[in-house]
Design brief:
The complex is a heterodimer of chains A (about 90) and B (about 700). With about 90 residues, chain A is of the alpha+beta class. Chain A is about 35% helix and about 25% strand. Chain A has one domain (about 1-80). Chain A starts with a strand and ends with a strand. Chain B folds into five domains: about 5-130, Four Helix Bundle (Hemerythrin (Met), subunit A), CATH 1.20.120; about 145-270, Alpha-Beta Plaits (2-Layer Sandwich); about 315-365; about 375-550, Histidine kinase-like ATPase, C-terminal domain (Heat Shock Protein 90, 2-Layer Sandwich); about 560-685, Beta Barrel (OB fold (Dihydrolipoamide Acetyltransferase, E2P)), CATH 2.40.50. In chain B, helix 1 runs antiparallel to helix 4 (about 85-105) and helix 1 (about 5-30) packs across helix 14 (about 375-390). Chain B has about 700 residues and is an alpha+beta fold. Classes of the chains: A alpha+beta (about 90), B alpha+beta (about 700).
């Protein structure tokens, strides 16, 4: 995870503990964040991260999460994964 | 050895053979990547290897081979052209398989360096070529499904159903025989994370065996942060479309720890192909195509099915020994004076028939040990390819006489020497680059020729290059510098070239990781000598070098010259015999403290009396009264003095007992037709006595 001013870069391959830590980190800083970007080449380890990102976006709609906007991600392990947020 | 260990030993042997064949076939495929029969052959090998590896718990090998198999399967079923860089990946994958196999056998915890990278490349290739996970078959791939749907006010559920329907349709189009299509709905409880279950975990499990997997997450229930609890599952539903060879039961095993209401698996029936009226026409066309297909020339790799059994070589050796005894017994009957004196036509005919049958059995049993050298030569193609790439030299390999048969035991010991000689030929034999070759009026591409042929009852395997040739002056200079020779010797060309096989001898100006350290050719020489063979080098500066390994046909039988000394019979291996003669008195000399010599064509050859070597009591005769058999040894030529030459004969080598085994001058024994025992001489260990005492 890298925090550069208002840009936060995270890897998708977070374990549950790391997701909890990330949640704790981001909650108080949500107002200052502009963009959350995803490190290239990383793949989801838990659906909890996807849910957290959706929650962050719903909490602060102006927050840019380009990954979430794609609505799809792929991995050689879990194939093609779509999500429907209806936001 | 337990039954389990025996089975494992068989697996290891088989796996070794499969990998060896893969190594060869993959190169042949690289040469002709449109040979899909060969690709099928490679696929079958990889498939067998995968099954065996997994059965014996070699999971790392199993996993790698599993993905490699997927790639091969794709190309063989689609008959799609294999791109050049992917061919490179194939060759690299076989290398990794070899290395992983070693790791598995040695129970090494770490994997080979390139394992992860190569596996990733394979996965990416599968992903880009096939419809397994990363490949999105559906046309909606990469596009957010919700945009348009939400615009029209569809709910998440409706969006998901629309996506699922499209996914099913796309997957049905891909469904082949043996593949099943499923729809799996996951409705995990909110405490699922706490119970250790995660949607991604299940998708990963499903993805392991899947040909294609596409999933749709309903995120409608995910709340804003104030109501969000990270450790609780907020994802209402996930629907997955799975194309896999697995059965419904096998898939259900992934969810056995979930509550029944948390998952549902539904089989999606394959799409029905519409029946069209002009089917007969289509069938006629297909038949014609098939007929045309039949006339296609069979692939080089296609082999007729034949029935084979695997036999332990120890059993073959025992059989060979028994046949040896049979030959001896038959010879005894045939040569026995008393039996021969019986004037009965039927007995004579029976003995003759016995002799013929015995010879036939001997030939058949001999042939069991003989295998074509083709596989060993095929392996060398890889060596040439790799060395060519490493040195940056263009090399064309010419292979001749691949069908030449050689003793299986020898074949196993030939690979390493051959590899070394070929690397040496390319690295040092050939000119440094194409420009230099063109400047010298040669073709840009260097040629290395690998030949096997029969010559005077021996097998010759030669490696020739059309490169620089050996600079004799340079060799002599190095040999003098290293104290190998003094410089006063009058050496023949063959002896000068032979110097490069001395330990630590290298004329290479630079040392590469391929050759040039001088630790190779002497090892090659030793290996060949262990096989009772010898090496000859012929070279012409500017034209090239030929290194020939001259080997006996088999290790079990020796072609020998039978000689007699002090009433005892000895066998001298014919391979080392140069000539035999009764010397003129004038050419025999004795020097105080240096023994006896015979002068021949300007050379002084030391005389070795067998009666002295084996301390046989006999009347001492002068050399000109006996026979001298001139032989080539490691230390140069010697003349073995014997009383009589009996003849040349092929004999079955018998190991010696412990007491005789200590005699380094003898390599083995043989039972002659008469029933007499003859000792086989180790000519390299025969030394003349330091002082002549008779003259």
């Amino acid at each position: 995870m890298q925090f550069d001013g208002d840009l936060l870069t995270i890897g998708l391959d977070m374990s549950m503990e790391e997701i909890r830590a990330f949640e704790q980190f981001v909650r108080p800083r949500l107002e200052y964040l502009e963009t959350i970007e995803i490190e290239e080449g990383t793949h989801l380890r838990s659906s909890a991260l996807l849910a957290l990102l959706v929650s962050l976006k719903r909490t602060r709609p102006e927050l840019k999460i380009p990954f979430l906007h794609q609505g799809v991600t792929t991995s050689s392990a879990y194939g093609t994964l779509h999500w429907m947020c209806h936001d | 050895m337990t039954k389990q260990e025996q089975v494992k030993a068989i697996f290891i042997e088989e796996a070794g053979e499969i990998i060896e064949k893969l190594d060869i076939d993959i190169l042949r495929f690289e040469e002709n990547s449109s040979d899909f029969d060969l690709l099928n052959e490679i696929f079958r090998g990889v498939h067998t290897l995968k099954g065996n590896a997994n059965a014996f718990g070699f999971t790392r090998l199993g996993e790698f081979v599993h993905h490699f198999e997927d790639v091969l399967d794709h190309y063989r079923s689609t008959k799609e052209d294999v791109e050049e860089h992917h061919l490179e990946l194939f060759v690299g994958s076989v290398d990794i398989i070899k290395e992983v196999m070693t790791c598995e056998l040695d129970v090494l915890p770490e994997l080979p360096d390139g394992y992860a990278e190569c596996l990733e490349k394979i996965k990416v290739l599968i992903a880009s070529k096939k419809n397994i996970p990363i490949l999105v078959v559906v046309e909606t791939s990469g596009e957010p499904l919700h945009d348009l749907a939400s615009e029209f006010g569809f709910s998440c559920l409706e969006q998901i159903e629309a996506g699922v329907a499209k996914s099913i349709h796309s997957h049905q189009a891909l469904q082949e025989e043996g593949m099943n299509l499923y729809r799996i709905d996951l409705t995990l409880e909110s405490d699922s994370y706490k119970r250790g279950f995660d949607h991604i975990l299940f998708l990963n499990l499903l993805g392991e065996k899947a040909k294609s997997l596409e999933s749709f997450f309903d995120m409608e229930n995910v709340k804003t942060l104030d109501q969000f609890a990270g450790d609780e599952n907020a994802i209402k539903r996930v629907c997955a479309i799975l194309l896999t060879p697995q059965t419904q039961e096998e898939i259900a095993e992934n969810f056995e720890f979930l509550c029944d209401h948390e998952y549902a698996i539904m089989v999606v029936e394959p799409a029905i192909t519409p029946i069209v009226e002009d089917i007969p026409v289509i069938l006629v066309e297909k038949t014609q195509k098939l007929e045309k297909g039949v006339s296609k020339a069979p692939s080089e790799s296609t082999t007729a099915s034949k029935s084979t059994i695997r036999i332990d070589t120890l059993k073959l050796d025992e059989l060979f020994d028994s046949v040896g005894e049979l030959v001896i017994a038959q010879n005894f009957i045939a040569q026995n004076e008393e039996i021969r004196s019986i004037e009965d036509e039927s007995i004579c005919r029976a003995i003759e028939t016995l002799s013929k049958i015995t010879k036939k059995i001997q030939d058949r049993v001999m042939s069991l040990r003989m295998v074509a050298i083709r596989d060993t030569f095929d392996k060398m193609k890889r060596v040439v390819r790799d060395t060519s790439k490493k040195t940056g030299k263009e090399v064309h390999l010419v292979v001749q006489g691949e069908e030449t048969e050689i003793d299986k035991t020898m074949i196993d010991s030939l690979s390493d020497p051959l590899i070394h000689i070929i690397r040496n030929a390319i690295d040092h034999g050939l000119e440094s680059d194409s420009a230099e070759r063109i400047r010298l009026g040669k073709s840009a591409e260097g040629t290395v020729t690998l030949r096997a042929f029969h010559k005077s009852g021996s097998i010759v395997i030669s490696v020739s290059d059309d490169g620089r040739g050996i600079n004799k002056e340079k060799v002599l200079q190095k040999a003098i510098e290293r104290g190998v020779i003094t410089g006063d010797e009058n050496l023949t060309d063959s002896q000068i070239f032979g110097l490069i096989m001395q330990p630590g001898f290298s004329t290479a100006d630079t040392i590469s990781d391929l050759s040039g350290r001088g630790v190779g050719l002497d090892v090659v020489k030793t290996s060949i000598e262990k096989l009772r063979g010898k090496i000859e080098i012929d070279s012409k500066e500017g034209e090239g070098t030929t290194l020939s390994m001259i080997l006996p046909l088999t290790l079990a039988i020796i072609d020998g010259m039978l000689v007699q000394s002090a009433g005892e019979i000895y066998i001298i291996p014919t391979l080392s015999v140069v000539e035999s003669f009764r010397p003129e008195r004038e050419i025999v000399h004795a020097l105080k403290g240096q023994g006896e010599f015979v002068s021949m064509r300007g050379q002084h050859i030391p005389v070795v009396r067998l009666s002295d070597v084996f301390e046989l009591s006999s009347q001492r005769i002068a050399p000109w009264e006996g026979i001298l058999v001139c032989v080539e040894t490691e230390e140069g030529r010697i003349a073995i003095m014997v009383d009589e030459l009996i003849g040349r004969q092929q004999v079955v080598i018998k190991p010696l007992g412990k007491s005789l085994a200590r005699l380094k001058e003898i390599t083995g024994g043989a039972i002659l037709g008469s029933g007499d025992i003859a000792l086989i001489l180790n000519v390299d260990e025969l030394r003349p006595l330091s002082e002549a005492s008779h003259v």
